[in-house]
Design a protein that fits this description.
Layout (H helix, E strand, L loop, with lengths): L1 H11 L3 H9 L2 H7 L6 H14 L3 H7 L3 H10 L6 H14 L6 H4 L3 H10 L3 H15 L5 H5 L4 H7 L6 H14 L8 H21 L5 H21 L2
Helix pairs in contact: 1-4, 4-7, 6-7, 7-10, 9-10, 10-13, 12-13, 13-15, 14-15
């Protein structure tokens, strides 16, 4: 019965009017409590409904305090056995991160996101983590926290051309975002970037010959930032 109710909610929760009604009736907190349900199918359906609801800015504001619980659920998941649960949780986080409303809360899970990215062999999961990191890296307030995790070495592996194009595109976009403020780095951030600059430069140069124009464009954007960085900090 509960699963059928969640399917019905999933079908109607894509519409703004219904999203508002569900929030006003206290549905968000009820759905969040289902994230710890013993049945995996219930968890997945509840997260899918929340993902739809998270596209509503007022709902994003209401869900901010639940982000810590969502991150905790992700950390408890087995990266090798819980593909579907992890993927749906990540999709929820992606939708919550479309605006900056909950970025501060989501950034508390940044280390967990990179851990999942490194440990998972699932391209489906990798894509969702990278989508999330693209959104977070667009916000300059998050750059210090992201660079503090030394992400450039990790991202380089996803920029290799034997990856799927959409994975390469997201990885190089994150790198371009992280390098987009060359005049505003602390000494510690400068050291993190400088440590990987030469290898990063080589990977970006290779991407200039990529068949995908969007990948080429992001590689050029990152390279322009590297040139600016070198002029400011290595002369």
């Amino acid at each position: 019965m509960l699963e059928k109710l969640l399917v019905a909610l999933l079908n109607c929760s894509a519409f703004t009017t219904n999203q508002n009604i569900i929030r006003e009736c206290g549905g968000l907190s009820c759905l969040v409590t289902l994230l710890t349900h013993p049945k995996k199918t219930i968890i997945i359906k509840a997260v899918q409904v929340l993902s739809n609801l998270a596209m509503n800015e007022k709902n994003q504001a209401c869900l901010k305090d639940s982000v810590f619980e969502i991150i905790k659920n992700l950390e408890y998941c087995d990266v090798l056995d819980d593909d579907d649960v992890i993927t749906e949780h990540l999709k929820l986080m992606v939708n919550l991160s479309v605006t900056n409303t909950a970025h501060e809360e989501i950034m508390t899970g940044a280390q967990a996101f990179f851990d999942i990215l490194c440990r998972s062999h699932s391209e489906k999961i990798q894509k969702e983590v990278l989508r999330l990191l693209v959104n977070l890296s667009c916000n300059t307030n998050n750059l210090e926290g992201l660079l503090g995790l030394k992400p450039l070495l990790i991202l380089q592996t996803f920029m290799l051309t034997d990856n799927q194009d959409d994975i390469v595109l997201r990885a190089v976009t994150i790198v371009a975002n992280l390098l987009s403020s060359p005049d505003g780095y602390t000494e510690q951030q400068q050291a993190v970037i400088t440590e990987h600059l030469n290898v990063l430069y080589g990977e970006l140069m290779r991407l200039l010959d990529h068949t995908d124009e969007n990948i080429q464009s992001q590689a050029k954007r990152a390279l322009r930032s590297i040139f600016a960085f070198r002029m400011m900090y290595t002369t």
